[in-house]
Amino acid sequence: MRRRSLLLLPLLTACGAAPSRTAVPNSLRIPPILEPSTDGEFVLTMQAGRTEFQPGRPTPTWGINGSYLGPTIRVSRGDRVRMRVVNRLAETSTLHWHGIRLPARMDGGPHQMIEPGATWTPEWTVDQPAMTGWYHPHLHEHTAMHVYRGLAGLIVVDDANRTGLPGEYGVDDVPLILQDKKFEDGGQLEEGGVDRGTWGVLGEDALVNGTLNARFAVTTEAVRFRILNASNARVYRAGFTDGRRFHVVATDAGLLRQPAEVDRVKLSPGERAEIVVRFAPGEQVVLNRIGETARAAGDPEEDDFDLMTFVADPRLEPSPPMPAALGGPPAVPPPPGARVRTFRLSGSEINDRDMDMTRIDEVVPAGAHEIWEIVNESYAHNFHIHEVEFRILELNGAPPPAWQQGPKDTVFLPKGAKARLSVRFNTHVDPVAPYMYHCHILRHEDKGMMGQFVVVTPGTEDRVARTIEPGH
Ligand code: C2O
Ligand code: CU
Ligand code: CU
Q1: Exposed site from 21, 104, 378, 410, fewest CB < 10 Å?
Q2: Predicted ipTM of the assembly
Q3: Where does the UniProt annotation place the signal sequence (predicted)?
Q4: Ramachandran assignment for 22, one of left (phi > 0), alpha (psi -120 to 50 degrees), beta (any other)
């Protein structure tokens, strides 16, 4: 039970609002692992439905193969993967594979639109180290609403590296998809704020894997959690109310070299962290978020709230000790003379421009290793680059804390912050189909805080058309 909820309860009941605050714990939903069809395809159907976040109060939502969120897709390095994405919604959407390295036409960005009733069948060969990625719509100007209604899911990449980390899905390897919501009196999601204001919607009811007031029964001494911030704007400084320390073992794009001990991890929208937490038999502990919302532009803020509760069995199965080395990919320093590109974030523009689907903003030679400098001249933003792995070289002039030195694809920039990134590009050459870079605060992305880059054969940069037709 949440301490603040108790205080607010009489007040809120009196004005008839926020029924969710009275709710009893619900056991944490674990998104099912999606089995491929007999044709070897992963079938993902985007559909409308109803979800009982609160018993007896169905909420209209969207989901993938279900009413809210989608299944977990699990693939291995070297696999040829084929998706069959079916749009059963009444609106056009797209499905983007965030963190997955693939050709731009398979990326599911704003250009790969799926009309109502249509099917999209991207395929690619998995060629990246183990990581936790995710999928979500990316329709230009409508991503915030589509994600808010429930379209998102995990895509987990495995590789041959045996880490010795807990790995039984749903038991001691558990996804935690964090989202904040606002519910209306009737139980509907409040959608009015999603496309308004500086941040869009900022709720105080936490869903974890689509579960309100989630409770997870811990059965092992150690549990690995794959945490994804799938919120529209919230930044989570997540940790346990008893202040216990835990280990970060992976960042967005893969494992660290060695575990990093912390008591909080800060994740902005789109970011992931894998952590390993130890539990004592019979104990109960709460995961919460404190301070530092996007609204406060990186400053501490009052609306701390609880995310979920863990209840450990009186007897726990033994877990392996924390490995000293995790086998994550080493950081490769940028070569001397690496090209530097600068991106200034101001208001909801990047380098004083709004997104234009017909404009190519950057042309990158295949296989390039560059330095991207992100300079935030305004309130909190973050910066996500499609189809790359980057490292944070510097945050405000200093190296980031150890746990943030792993492979990344999204970086948080509090008000006025500056980041220097070492970015390694792929070799999927396509001079016409672009990848995106953008702020992952979805209201900002929808307002146009996004740009496009193409990856081309080295030496052809000057010959590439800077204007394209939308819809590749
Ligand atoms: Cu999570 Cu451009 O996306
Ligand atoms: Cu992405
Ligand atoms: Cu932003």
Answers
A1: 378
A2: 0.99
A3: 1-23
A4: alpha
411 lines ligand 1 (CB under 6 A): no
Integer Cα distance of 405 and 260 in angstroms = 10
Residue 98 Cα: closest atom of ligand 1: 1
Ligand lying nearest the CA atom of residue 345: 3
Distance CA 448, CA 442 (A): 10
For residue 410, count CB atoms less than 10 angstroms from its CB and return exposed for 0-12, middle for 13-18, buried for 19 or more. Answer: buried
Nearest CA-CA partner of 343 in 372, 386, 384: 372
CA of 410 to the centre of ligand 1 (A): 9
CATH of region 31-158, choose from 3.30.70.660, 2.60.300.12, 2.60.40.420, 3.30.50.10: 2.60.40.420
pTM over 0.80: yes
Q: Distance from the CA of 27 to the center of ligand 2, in angstroms?
A: 30
- In the sheet with 340-346, reading across from the earlier edge strand, the strands are 349-350, 340-346, 369-376, 418-424, 389-395
What residues contact 385, with CB distance under 8 A and at least 6 apart? Answer: 372, 409, 410, 423, 435, 437
Q: Whose CA is nearest to atom 1 of ligand 1?
A: 98
Domain 173-317 in CATH 3.30.390.60? The answer is no
> According to CATH, where is 2.60.40.420 located in the chain?
31-158, 173-317, 340-463
Q: Which ligand is nearest to the CA of 99?
A: 2
What is the token pair recorded at 59? Answer: 């909420």
Beta carbons of 462 and 369 less than 8 angstroms apart: no
From ligand 2's centre to the CA of 306, what distance in Å? 28
**Does residue 447 line the site of ligand 1, with CB under 6 A?**
no
Assigned CATH for 340-463: 2.60.40.420
CA distance 440 to 294: 12
- List beta partners, residue 224: 173, 276
Mean pLDDT, consecutive 10-residue segments, the chain of 472 residues?
37 38 82 96 98 93 98 97 98 98 98 98 98 98 98 97 95 97 92 92 93 98 98 93 97 98 96 98 95 46 80 97 96 97 96 98 98 96 97 98 98 95 96 97 97 98 94 82
Residue 227 alpha carbon to ligand 1 centre in Å = 16
Q: How far, in Å, from the CA of 382 to the mean position of ligand 3?
A: 6
